[in-house]
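hey so i finally got around to running the thing on that chain from the lab meeting. sorry it took forever, my laptop kept dying and i had to restart like 3 times. anyway pasting the input first so we r on the same page abt which one it is
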Amino acid sequence: MDITGIFAILIVIGGPMAIAITAIISEHRAKQRKYEAMVKAVELGRTPEEVKMMFEEEKEKNGKDVNSRLRRGIILIGIALGLAAMALVVDRSFVIGGVSGHFTFGASVFLLFLGLAFIVIWLIGKPKAK
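ok and heres what got predicted. didnt touch it at all, straight out
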C-alpha cells in the first residue's frame, strides 16, 4: 500500500471528524458548566427571574449577539470571492492532478452559498423593530 494515499485519506476523512468531535465535546462541556452554575444559583436562593437575567447578561458578554451570523456570512463571502479570484489566476498546481482552478472555484462556490445561508439566517432571526 502507498503510505501517501493512506495518509491523505486519514487527513481528508479524519481531520473534519476530529474537528467535529472536538466541537461537540466542547459545546457539551460548556452547557454542563452553565447547568451547574444555574443549579448553584438556585441553591443559593436566587429566584428563577434573577437566574434568567444573570445568564442573559452572560450571553451578551460572550459576544453571542444577533449580528454574529451576519459577520460570519460576510467573512465567508469575502473568502469565497478571494478563492474565486485565485481560481481565475491559478492555472496549474499539485492539487487534484493539476486541476486546482476547478477545485478552488468549487470550494469558493460552496463558501459563497454558506455565507449567503448565514446572512439569510440572520435576516430571519433578527429582532423585529416595534
